[in-house]
Amino acid sequence: MESNGENNKKKVTSKSPSFSLRSPSLNALRLQRIFDLFDHNGDGFITLEELSQALSRLGLNANLTDLKSTVESYIQPGNAGLNFEDFSSLHKTLDDCFFGGDDDLSSPAAAAADESDLAEAFKVFDENGDGFICARELQAVLKKLGLPEGGEMERVERMIISVDRNKDGRVDFFEFKNMMRTVKQIS
């Protein structure tokens, strides 16, 4: 799966400690939330079509044939698609394969990679590149992800206020980083 058709081989050069949260219980909740978002019709299965649509919404245009060859072995016989357990198994395999599973997250290299990952995540939300996430930018990303919170500006503004430590109505990188690290460390 590539985000563009120019490169047929995806090379992963570094392991990402932020792919998984540090708390297994938060990881399970996050994964369930992702599963529920991808399961567009709510039938308890993510079909190849639903998975393809979800990846497209995230800007990852996957070839359906390639997606099928990757995912098909995780779908139990007789099922219409991936159930949550299948999805969890696929996630674990991808995590282990591409990101090395449970690496030492306290090493200096892991800390640097974590900082880099946070900067990249911040850029996704900071659509205009001004160094801040405003309510409109957050709402746009939430809508792209199909999250219901994106439909109500009042909820989005409350989300901003909850992490806006200097009360300027926007989230800067420092505030974003503190919020993300707090979420990762909750047990």
UniProtKB/TrEMBL annotation:
Question: What's a Pfam family this protein contains?
Answer: EF-hand_7
Q: Which InterPro entries match?
A: EF-hand-dom_pair, EF_Hand_1_Ca_BS, EF_hand_dom, EF_hand_pair_protein_CML-like
Q: Sorted alphabetically, which CDD domains does this protein's record hold?
A: EFh
Domain EF-hand, residue spans: 26-61, 113-148, 151-186
PROSITE patterns per the UniProt record, alphabetical = EF_HAND_1, EF_HAND_2
The free-text function statement in the UniProt record for this protein reads: Potential calcium sensor.
Q: What is this protein called?
A: EF-hand domain-containing protein
Recorded source organism is Eruca vesicaria subsp. sativa (Garden rocket)
